[in-house]
Amino acid sequence: MRVLVTGGAGYIGSVVTAELLGAGHQVTVLDDLSTGHADAVPEGAEFVRTSITEAHDVLAAGRFDAVLHFAAKSLVAESVVKPELYWQNNVVGSFALLESMRRHGVRKMVFSSTAATYGEPETTPIPESSPTRPTNPYGAGKLAIDEMLTSYAVAHGLAAVSLRYFNVAGARITPDGMLGERHATETHLIPIALQVAAGLRPQLQVNGVHYPTPDGSCVRDYIHVLDLADAHLRAIEWTREHSEGHLICNLGSGGGSSVREVIDSVRRVTGKPTPAVDAPNRPGDPAVLIASNAKAAAELGWRPTRGLDEMVADAWTFLQTRQPSESAG
Ligand SMILES: NC(=O)c1ccc[n+]([C@@H]2O[C@H](COP(=O)([O-])OP(=O)(O)OC[C@H]3O[C@@H](n4cnc5c(N)ncnc54)[C@H](O)[C@@H]3O)[C@@H](O)[C@H]2O)c1
Ligand SMILES: O=c1ccn([C@@H]2O[C@H](COP(=O)(O)OP(=O)(O)O[C@H]3O[C@H](CO)[C@@H](O)[C@H](O)[C@H]3O)[C@@H](O)[C@H]2O)c(=O)[nH]1
């Protein structure tokens, strides 16, 4: 298929682009490089540097079959202090993209949604039928985009899949090159812990040690970026097989790891001491977020295959290929 990938210069979008090319799809990446890197766009993909609000010319020229929409701001804490940035960039931007697609007859989309659409869960693991009560503007905006897709599917014959990622980690390591997480402002646990292991940061904070969990630290559901990419290839097939409709699926392992278990994995994999200190709760952090992945299995035939140590090991290999000045942040 001819696929437009928005956000394809970012972490997840670049990995999925590489896998799409490997599967024989033709890919154009559209990215404004606000948090992405031009050199992350895999060889073999065309690259257009622009915003999703300016996608009409690319869509007019491209005769695309589908859009994979990764482009977004995605820092939860930033969304709390700068909500306007998130409503503008993510929600208004996605609306403009959808309208451009409608104008140019592109009726298939796979969208990067998030576990943050659920907010504080009522049940664990979280099924897609759970109430959606996001606790920050990032999650609220992603939920608004999911709603947009539902309404366009009903009214305008869109076939869309929203994939609600839980905590994405790991890297794509191949003889041809490596793609991984390279955020100027890094907030994610695994890359931060690995930067500590590498000596790029003195220590790591465990954000909250009195949660109602076995060891007191927060539990999250970590998923390897390559398992995530596999789900995207399957989601594109779903849009090929359905002329309209909106499928929403969680993408997680179905199990959880605490912050302390992640730090133990980093110590085990790297063999480095990785000092960690107890710290206050991070505002807005739910104690436990674990996905039910039964729907993704039933609808897409998807099952994750890579565990926590593999995610940590691949992210460690990736970090060690970067210059220290690029890695700390
Ligand atoms: N990383 C995670 O754990 C996680 C979890 C849930 C959902 N997500 C979602 O997955 C997607 C990808 O996340 P990521 O971790 O790869 O982030 P990232 O910041 O590495 O990638 C996002 C990319 O989008 C681009 N972009 C942002 N706004 C744009 C705009 N208006 N026009 C064009 N390009 C724009 C950025 O330059 C960047 O290359 C995001 O939508 C994010 O919300 C990520
Ligand atoms: O230095 C750190 C960094 C993080 N944490 C904790 O580690 C856990 C995981 O944090 P992080 O890696 O920042 O991920 P989340 O906050 O769970 O958010 C990710 O996962 C969500 C879905 O679960 C997505 O919506 C978000 O986009 C994505 O950033 C949380 O309890 C954090 O408080 C620490 O203790 N110390």
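^ uridine-5'-diphosphate-glucose complex. The radius of gyration is 19 Å. Residues 83-103 form the longest helix (21 residues).
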